[in-house]
From TrEMBL:
Keyword Transferase found: no
Keyword Hydrolase: no
Designated name of the protein: Smr domain-containing protein
Source species, domain of life: Eukaryota
Record domain Smr: where: 291-384
Keyword terms, alphabetized: Repeat
Membership in a protein family: Belongs to the PPR family. P subfamily.
Amino acid sequence: MSLVGLVLVPWTSPSVERRLTSCAAPAIAGGGGRGGVGRKHVERLLSSLHSIPGDENSPAAVDRLVRKFLLSCSKPAARVALSMYRRITGASWFRWNAKIAASVVPLLDAMGLYAEAEGLMCEADSRLKVRELVVFYCDLIEAYAKRGMREKVFEVRARLLLRGIPAGRGHEKGCGVMLDSGLSVDTICANMILSCYGDGGQLTEMVTWLRQMRDSNVPFSIRTCNSVLNSCPGLSSMLRDHQTRPLTLKKLMEMLEEEGCGNEETSLVQELVSSNVLLQTLDWSPSEGKLDLHGYHLCSAFLAVLLWIEELKARLLDRGAEGKVIPRQISIICGSGKHSNTMGESPVKRLVSVSLFHLGSPLRIDRKNVGRLMAGGTAVRDWLLKMEGS
């Protein structure tokens, strides 16, 4: 028998309460564990259930009490609860409840009853419609987070993706619970939420979540940028036409506002620009100034190049740059297309090389490494001076 959940029906008559107590009594007697911890815990639950008024609001009150019990009970008490469950599932007044089921699954996992936990989730899959199933999995994410079972949060996320169901709200709530419990929420957790919001086109929520990441000192990553910028339809459309593509950061921001892309896209780009995450792969030394775009998707690579140009101006042209050593060569690593849809054709390299060509850049494809654009440092500085003077 699968452990569907410790779920109880409306308390409409004292006779039902007596039947529950009689069903539970053998379980309590046999499952108290050392010191009777489980026994006392379950007796308190039964006492609370018995005191619920028999009115129309009693089902909700029962659900609240049982959920509270499941969240706080020890392993001995949990074993008693599950034993009691086995005895009451055959009762005519028993009913299935998704929210309590979501509370039971982490309890089963914590006790090592993995097959039972999986059976409960499978039963939810078969019983619930899509909208109800989303709520179930969001509750499940929260329940795992409250128990500090971060790996299980990831497993639920994978299960949702396989079913094609986004759960940004559930992950956000789960991360909030983890933070409240003193557990760290890392970039991977935060990126999962961004990915869910992106799948649903929820740009406003993405802006809010990025700011929460920043305020909580959760560092951005290249994957953060990819998830965010891939979700910006206005920015993506700009990259399709190289004739009208914005070639400076200032022009990009102007076009986002002029073409009605919405405040959300502008805010998302501004958040990433201010974080400077897109230039975290810029290496600078007397021998070479190198920007490595491996792992960047198209929109991220494009924005990184615009930021790279502004960074070069600051390092080579701005006040205080006089007398500084100019790197012998400056390069951008785009990759040769080994991991592209079409072997040997790198969309990132094509985007970067065409954009730099229209800017009159001296960077050219390296004959020894076709995935690399390079030029002498002095030539790049002269090009930047020409851009500033035009």
